[in-house]
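Why predict the complex rather than its parts? Because the way molecules touch one another can change local conformation, and only a joint prediction can capture that. The input here totals 464 residues.
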Amino acid sequence: MTDTDAPLAVEVWRGAAAGRFQTFQVARSANQTVLDVVTNIQRDQDPTLAYRFACRVGMCGSCAMVVNGRPRWTCRTRVAAALGAASVLRLEPLRNFTVVRDLAVDMRDFFDKWQAAKGHFEPSADPAADFAVVPPGSPQRQAADAGIECIGCGICHSACDVVAWDRDYLGPAALNRAWTLVNDVRDRGNAARMDAVSAASGCHLCHTHMSCTQFCPKGLAPTYAIAGLKRAMVARALGRKP
Amino acid sequence: MIRASHRQPGFLAALLHRLSGLALALFLPLHFLALGLALNGAAPLDSFLALTRQPLVKLAEWALVVALATHMALGLRVIAIELLPWRDRTAATVSTCVGAGLLVGLLLLLNGA
Amino acid sequence: MTAALFLAQRLSAAVLAVAVTMHLATIIHAARAGMTAADVFSRTRGNVAFLILYGIFVLAVAVHAPIGLRNVLREWTPWRGRGLDIALAAFALLLLALGLRAALAVFLA
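Output of the joint prediction:
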């Protein structure tokens, strides 16, 4: 059993792509979160530590990083839960992102892929005259609703092996968003969107490891969104045949 | 230390699926060449088949049958996830697929392969 | 191109689901009955149904295996691009040729 009065040993990644782990000792407190720990280090021990957070309450996703091998929101991760049977807390930046410094990563690639997958709403040419009635219980709306709570935290992108193996792969977040828009009956951009997700770096690369679904803090299931895109891709391919 | 995302059943399923597929793809040309020996009459094939009675070869044959059954079961799981609306209970489903593969292997063993 | 490969992979998988089940059942039956190669050939010799079924099996494999290999090689090795596609097309033809030859050999044995 760990001595709960002893300070917590925390290994923190310092540097960028190349670097090292630096160990800090942090006083334990009841119910402390990993974000509490990182903040303590930066404020009281080493002001040069770079990390991100914003809301502190599990709404923005800014604090995502890899904690003892699992990508998590640090504000919503209790130290006790993160440690499990381990005695040392290990903090790393999100995997599959370029590290800016220490625990802060460059999110540009992630959002570029979002755009490349056409993960944005395309209105019709005459919105005012085109008022859409969308029954909330319709299958398409339910499919869209299942994925729209994504806040772009990047955890699924970090967890995805295919993103690691093929850096061009659009990734679970971008594809999940694309699927919500495919199911949005008001959207007019589906031709370009289906082209984007059917291309070489698109939905077919998903091998259903399901790490994205496993680690999504919002409980979303990009695996099934991507499965929907695969079905749509096939339907389109068949429909095009003479 | 194995990464947390690699200790999930979905990853194990994908890895087994991939490795069994690789083994089968590499084995197939040899399988076809061996069978093709029959074209040259019974003798060349029989002398080749004598080689296959060695225990190591028999083990490899058994492993390939298990690989085939497992690859198919896990592949059907992928197709089910892609086509069917039901939500996969990953761990249980993967265990079932691997179990099916091993069951085929067991059947082969019990029937005097 | 990609959607076509994906569809070919899934369709060939559906065909293989049937063919592999047939093949596994045959293997287990043959082992159970203690059949030798000669015993098997006595059943396949001149058997047109066998030739057709296994011919379809070979065709499905020649489509399915190279596409699967393509993913593995692209993701686990630095090899990609046209060179890889050409090599895999060649592998597909190899499987087709050797496979049909094998089916024929067993048909004529």
